[in-house]
Specification:
With 456 residues, the chain is α/β, with parallel strands linked by helices. It is 33% helix and 23% strand. It folds into 2 domains: 121 residues, NAD(P)-binding Rossmann-like Domain (Rossmann fold); 220 residues, 2-Layer Sandwich (Dihydrodipicolinate Reductase, domain 2). Pfam families: Sacchrp_dh_C, Sacchrp_dh_NADP.
């Protein structure tokens, strides 16, 4: 049998493992599922005869090398910064490798070695990055194959709560890593190009510069800019495009409300707050407010954030129980961002019966035969339950499909790469439709190009 080593059995691996086990008999596969928690790995095997669970400590070099040496191909579902040791071992033992994470500089340095050994190191093959690359390149290539010239590309994606599970004023719950949500947009200004002009949004303004999106049957959404929209400009072959913008989707009103935390300083992760372990939620809020001999914390918050008496922003803060004197943070040496994450987890953790939702939206502006045109492409995916979430499905299934295509010799281009070639994206996007990941394309009037460039 052909052995697939899966390193990491967390939530994102659920749909990945389920898919490969379903294919295991026909494809002659045996899955070795390795995790620091043997119990978690065993749970994910579901007692399937073609799966073996092992305890695997990625920092145990002998254990790691032994597991990789026995495999035919390796899937790493570890946190992004831990892939590199696995990748180096894969070069040594001549094993191809698949991950859902962004290509790091260290991973890119292995490109020559991977090509020399005819190995495929497929990265960014999850949701975002992943499905976004594939669904975008499919249409971009179709436009170019017709002789069209790309003028505009905008891409948006968001992990949200499904409408039937949307039960709070923020219209949001954590469907992925909460820490990433709290730290979103930090580390430098968001940068993109719009109508041929470079634009920059500093973090302090990021959540007040949004645009609206309409998705049929699901209503209106908003999107704020990702940190670096220009990262894939050359990768997608869009160096001459007038507009390139990538953003994160939320329900309307979320960004304005989130900006309250930014303005207060609660998303800062650069310093530790004294005595955070014994701090109450109310004291945490008051830490960011000026002293006043008579004004309450509530009054000071209203004044500093300019919240009117009838503003729903106030209700959103109250809903989080931020002014509670009895709830204690309970985290030693915590940063403001870590404390905020703890508080939000009280209200935004998905309940057992909750379902999540993925929304992806692309806009393609192009010129063909002297006419400017636009295509909008939209995808909505709803999770089944708390195991087979929409996030687990859209991250895990492309990883699994790419792994099988590599094993079966259908993907052959060696090296460190992204899923932007037809040999990768055409079969995967087609198969994803069988699992409910379907893009609906619609011709739209092109509004993005201003030929006289009056505005900049």
């Amino acid at each position: 049998m052909r052995t697939i080593l899966i390193i990491g059995a967390g939530r994102s691996a659920s749909s990945l493992i389920h898919y490969l086990l379903d294919k295991s008999e026909k494809e002659n596969l045996h899955l070795v599922i390795g995790d620091l928690s043997l119990a978690l790995a065993q749970k994910k095997t579901n007692n399937h005869p073609n799966a073996t669970a092992i305890a695997l400590d990625i920092f145990d070099e002998n254990q790691r090398k032994q597991a990789i040496q026995k495999a035919d191909i390796v899937i790493s579902m570890l946190p992004a910064h831990l892939h590199i040791e696995v990748a180096r071992d894969c070069v040594i033992y001549k094993k191809s490798m698949v991950t859902a994470s962004y290509v790091s500089d260290a991973m890119q340095e292995l490109d020559a070695a991977a090509k020399e050994n005819n190995l495929i190191f497929m990265n960014e093959i999850g949701l975002d990055p992943g499905i976004d690359h594939m669904s975008a390149m499919k249409i971009i290539d179709e436009i170019r194959d017709k002789g069209g010239k790309m003028l505009l590309f905008e891409s948006f994606c968001g992990g949200l709560v499904a409408p039937e599970s949307d039960t709070n004023l923020w219209n949001y719950k954590f469907t992925w890593a909460p820490r990433n949500v709290v730290l979103a947009g930090q580390g430098g200004a968001a940068k993109f190009i719009q109508e041929g002009a470079y634009k920059y949004i500093p973090y302090c303004n990021l959540f007040r510069r949004t645009e609206f999106l309409e998705v049929e049957d699901y209503g209106r959404f908003e999107a704020y800019s990702n940190r670096d929209s220009l990262k894939y400009r050359s990768v997608y072959g869009l160096d001459d495009a007038l507009t390139l913008y990538r953003g994160t989707i939320r329900r309307v009103g979320f960004s304005k409300a989130w900006n309250m935390f930014v303005q207060l300083g609660m998303t800062d992760d650069s310093y530790v707050m004294e005595d955070s372990e014994n701090m109450s939620y109310r004291k945490f809020v008051n830490s960011f407010l000026p002293y006043h001999p008579t004004d309450s914390v509530e009054i000071k918050v209203r004044l500093i954030l300019k919240i009117d008496q009838d503003d729903i922003m106030w209700d959103k803060l109250v809903e989080l129980d931020l002014f509670n004197t009895k709830k204690i943070i309970g985290l030693k040496n915590a940063t403001p961002a870590q404390i905020l994450e703890k508080i939000l987890s009280d209200s935004w953790t998905l309940q057992p019966e909750d379902k999540d939702m993925i929304v992806m939206y692309h806009k393609f502006g192009y010129e063909l035969d002297g006419v400017k045109r636009q295509i909008d492409s939209k995808m909505v995916c709803i999770g089944e339950d708390q195991t087979y979430t929409a996030m687990a499905k859209t991250v895990g299934l492309p990883v699994a499909m790419a792994t099988l295509l590599i094993l079966n010799g259908k993907i052959t281009t060696p090296g460190v790469q992204l899923p932007i070639r037809k040999e990768v994206y055409l079969p995967i996007l087609k198969e994803l439709e069988e699992y409910g990941v379907v893009f609906k394309e619609q011709a739209m009037p092109y509004l993005g190009y201003n030929p006289v460039k009056v505005f900049s």
